[in-house]
Amino acid sequence: MKDKCDTLDLCNNLQFKIINHCPYSCKEFVITQKFHFRKWLQTSIILNVLAFGIGLHKQDIVILLVALGLVLVILFFKLRSKVVKESLLVMASIGAQTTTTYALGKKCCQFYDLTSIRDIVINEGITMHSIIFYLVLLLRGSDAQTEPQILVPLFKHSWPPLRFLQHIYRESQAVIWKKRKTKDS
Amino acid sequence: MPEQKPSPSPERAIYGFVLYLGSFLALVWAYVPDPWLESIGLTYLPQKYWAIAGPVFLCGMVAMVLCLYIGYSFLITAPLDSIHTIRDKHSRPVITSGLPDGAIKPIGDIDISEVNRQLYGDR
Fold first, then answer.
1. PIG-P domain spans which residues (chain B) (predicted)?
2. Chain B neighbors of A148, CB-CB under 8 A
């Protein structure tokens, strides 16, 4: 199975990829959190030098072991909830599926049937300190109503910037409403 | 909610005058010593402690109300997954049919799908 990958863009720490599984009918949008090894290494070295400077290695061994255990436990819980990759798979006449991959390997998938999807749109929302653009899946309610009833934000751990969202919007609209690009348009 | 206007009105004049007289009485009570007040016959008045505590309470309340107002604004902001970011009980649909010839179209909230198509869709 050949996946045609377009690495479209790199934001400060996000990598955006569109995978065309099947032209015009199946597309996957993947946003990955990048891990900056150099920044991590620099921070670790600085902290180690500081710890050596204040004489942390001269403390009682029991206290150090307890502190190490505590730090490892906190690290484990933090890694458990750290999102590494988020993807949206849009398939014509089937639906959409969101997948979140966590740092320890856990994957959470959620599938939305096309009959319950009303649209995928870019919405603007107010958070505590800013206004952000975010991609939203509009779902119908239980019975056939004209108004969308449920709003599901997508990519809610990565919050990609607007230019990524515009790409995702255009391509997923083309897939869902099955628009085929002709040569002269 | 009825419209609130900052203009003067008879009721506000009365409130103002009552506050004016009340503030005079409060100042008199705060400054005149207790034995003098008792000699007149006014024995059942609040403790002089409140002459300090009252204004302090009011000033603290002003600062607290500022924080609370901001906090309340954050509380009633619709969360990002709420349908109220798109429509709520005050939103109106756009009416295009059933209008007489040459009429100005009434105001309505455009559906978010249409807005997105105009803003971000293919031209």
1. 12-120
2. 83, 86
